[in-house]
Amino acid sequence: MYGTENNRDDSERTAFRRAEKKYKLYYDYNASSKNKKKKQPKPVDLAEVLDFRSILECYHQNAVLPSGVIVLHDKFTSPVFALQNRPGFYFIPGALSIEKQCSLIRESLTDFPQPPNRTNHNALYGPIQDLFVAAKEGKLLVEDNSPITSSETYADIDHRDDKEWKFTTEKDMSLRKCRTVSASVLLRKLRWSTLGLQFDWSKRNYDVSLPHNKIPEALCELSKQLAKPALPGGVEFRPDAAIVNYFGLGDTLGGHLDDMEADWSKPIVSLSLGCKAIFLLGGKSREDTPLAMFLRSGDAVLMAGDARECFHGVPRIFTDKENAEIGHLETRLTHEDDICFLKYIQTSRININIRQVF
Ligand code: SIN
What we know:
Elements: H1 8-11, H2 15-23, E1 27-31, E2 37-41, H3 52-62, E3 69-71, E4 81-83, E5 89-92, H4 98-109, H5 122-125, H6 131-136, E6 140-143, H7 154-158, E7 165-168, H8 170-173, E8 180-182, H9 183-188, E9 192-196, E10 199-200, E11 205-206, H10 217-227, E12 241-248, E13 253-256, E14 268-274, E15 277-281, E16 291-295, E17 300-303, E18 312-317, H11 321-324, H12 327-332, H13 339-345, E19 348-355
Antiparallel strand pairs: 1-2, 3-4, 4-5, 5-17, 6-7, 6-8, 9-12, 10-11, 12-19, 13-18, 14-17, 14-19, 15-16, 15-18
Succinic acid (SIN) is lined by residues 245, 253, 270, 272, 279, 295, 312, 314, 351, 353.
């Protein structure tokens, strides 16, 4: 599901792939004055990217909308936009207050990746407690109970059954001959965590036998509120799972369908935090040319009904100061305790998508 380099033929095979390639981050390598290669992001043509923030501004000023865009619930938290040719897709620009964005960023880095919630690190390291705090304190994750013996190779260790990793400090490690990885590297490599019912990525389904907590009450309530425009009168949204995606510079989320839930009439509520991104909304085939749109911190997207069958993905995030558009977070995350969150989010994006599975 996550983006990887594809060879040229493959990357140009479908309309969706071509759009991903158009917006993906590539570098130009220019010789600098000292004759060293200096890499610069290749310029990308953003003229066709739909910008719901500008659409909202125009709508507020003169109630005019671009063709194909309709406004649904004018009296909702903020106007809800829909697309004539993509029934079931809804965009709520600036749905989350700055306070809410900050608290969700904090939770996404501290509480959400805590066991029993699983993360992409589980497969290699087992459950990891307090990764964010460990990164802040400069700790190392060390394979605790089984130093390498002289006759073992690292490959042998991968097959041991007694793997157990624990955080320690550089000092405690001193001369021990163990495998280590720094917590800050692991934090940078955190790609997903799952809340509520746990998703098994290898089987691409929810594994109800895995230990799990309910999704946090506040997130549950928020998603119920936001889901309303996508639900016919009185139908209840009962979120029981969420996937949190973490994106750093150059990370992408390849075109995919979210098709593992039993009832597609229920929306997926998808929240954006941190650096601005480009979202591609395709059709039911990868051959359908996708629509590109900006996602900014605080935006919410709903995908329900027909739109649940549409390919979608994130080919680009903008981590540079000029384009990330996180000034409002920089002015709010100023407390000493928030500096680490700010540092993280200045070059990252977090997406929380909340689902009703059954
Ligand atoms: C997803 O489609 O699963 C996530 C989309 C996003 O990152 O906004």
